[in-house]
Specification:
By secondary structure, the protein is of the alpha/beta class. The protein has helices at 4-11, 49-52, 61-73, 85-94, 111-128, 148-153, 157-160, 181-194, 217-229, 282-286, 307-320, 323-343, 372-383, 405-421; strands at 28-32, 35-38, 43-46, 102-108, 135-139, 169-173, 197-202, 206-207, 213-214, 233-237, 261-264, 276-281, 349-355, 358-363, 386-387, 394-397. The protein starts with a helix and ends with a helix.
Length: 422
């Protein structure tokens, strides 16, 4: 009988894959904790929590039980005209841990659609107020998803290339660092003065797909201040950074100025269920209140507020706030910093950095995002039993909070071995 990889090739079209040249997909048959097993019996440490979703570990007993219990009670009901306990309870549990100005949550089904809804909210907010604003502000090299609005805000040509002529109008600025803040602020001021800007869309503190690029909280605060004083809504894309990865519950918790809108997904349901949330302030929500029906937000997803996803999210928040997870986050953050100190002066390392459970290492070599070096490193890590997906010349580690010390040590050892061989 053919194995999964062979059967897969007949009908499956994989994401982010050039099937003419790509290696066969690996058939995964089991996942538990920080480990994956393939159909050949090989074991892998999931060093990136499967695109930073399974932060409490795969097949977490607490979350699987919550989903199982929920499906016996209410599997699904459409969310237009109806509500249900898991959605209401999730709103009651999530709002208190979000930045203090957040008051309403809108449900979607994945990260891209969370950003898509946020952009549409911003454009319609101004339209409802009689102001046609048609320009977004975004960081260079940002990534916000693959639907058209989210893709417009993104700045990575490897994803956007064929669609550039069809995207929304976007003005881009560099990420703020200590040595360029005055120039970035001047450019932002010029953009706001010369364009009808509706929203500033940004990944707070860490740009994920760009290679885990870090930027200044103080600098970002100053950008938010300038935007909000000009009536530009600020949209924080916390799809990657949210739920504890930067050390705090949300990267926005490092900021003095709160975003007007926040996008959440991935670790929201711990990778157990496709669900996302676009939260907003009272000011934004009130901009849609009117006796005129068409001023409402006529945007919907069939599976909005899916009860099973809400149940997973509720269990995930309980885990996020638990003493055990809080302690593990601190341990991983300290271990990451120690590893940075160990390898930051290596001849192959251009820069090493860590924030919370995010570790990134830029190599002293130029390569394309999906170039040969990246592919060779990926295969090298897999043969050593560690799942890491380099972003161009950046190796990053973003493990589940529950990864053991021994498992984390193996991840570091494999990365260090790669620095000696490549």
């Amino acid at each position: 009988m053919k194995n999964l990889s062979e059967r897969d090739k007949k009908h499956i079209w994989h994401p982010l894959t050039q099937h003419q040249t790509a290696a066969d997909a690996i058939g995964i048959v089991k996942a538990k904790g920080a480990l994956l097993w393939d159909d050949q019996g090989n074991e892998y440490i999931d060093g990136i929590a499967s695109w930073y979703t399974a932060m409490y570990g795969h097949s977490n007993d607490q979350i699987t039980k919550a989903i199982s219990d929920q499906m016996q009670q209410l599997d699904f009901v459409m969310f237009s005209g109806f509500t249900h306990e898991p959605a209401v309870k999730l709103s009651e549990k999530l709002i208190p841990i979000l930045p203090s100005n957040q008051e309403k949550i809108f449900f979607n089904d994945n990260g891209s659609t969370a950003v898509e809804a946020a952009i549409k909210m911003a454009l319609q907010f101004h339209h409802n107020n009689g102001s046609k604003r048609n320009t977004l502000i975004a960081f260079e090299d940002g990534f916000h998803g693959d639907t058209f609005g989210a893709m417009s805000a993104s700045g990575l040509s490897s994803y956007n290339g064929p669609f550039e002529d069809y995207l929304l109008k976007v003005k881009r600025i560099p990420i703020p660092k200590t040595n360029n803040l005055s120039e970035v602020l001047a450019l932002l001021h010029e953009i706001i003065q010369n364009n009808s800007c509706a929203a500033f869309v940004f990944e707070p503190l860490v740009q994920g797909a760009a290679g885990m690029k870090f930027h200044s909280a103080n600098g970002l605060d100053q950008l938010l201040k300038m935007c909000q004083e000009a009536g530009v809504l600020c949209i924080a894309d916390e799809i990657m950074t949210g739920f504890g990865k930067t050390g705090k519950n949300f990267a926005s918790d490092y900021l003095e100025y709160n975003p007007d809108i926040i996008c959440l997904s991935k670790a929201l349901t711990a990778g157990m269920f496709p669900l996302s949330i676009t939260s907003c302030s009272k000011k934004v929500f009130d901009g849609f209140l009117s006796e005129e029906v068409h001023k409402g937000f006529f945007h919907a997803h069939t599976f909005s507020a899916h009860p099973l996803g809400c149940a997973a999210a509720l269990a995930g928040i309980d885990l996020l706030l638990s003493d055990e997870i809080c302690e593990r986050k601190k341990v991983i953050a300290k271990q990451h910093q120690k590893f940075v100190e160990l390898i930051e002066n290596h001849s192959k390392v251009k820069e090493a950095r860590a924030l919370g459970v995010i570790l990134a290492i830029d190599l002293n070599v130029e390569t394309e995002r999906y170039g040969n070096l990246r592919n060779e490193l990926y295969q090298f890590f897999m043969t050593r039993g560690v799942v890491l997906r380099p972003l161009g010349n950046t190796i990053y580690v973003l493990p589940p909070f529950i990864i053991t010390d021994d498992q984390l040590s193996k991840v570091y050892a494999v990365v260090k071995e790669a620095l000696e061989l490549f």
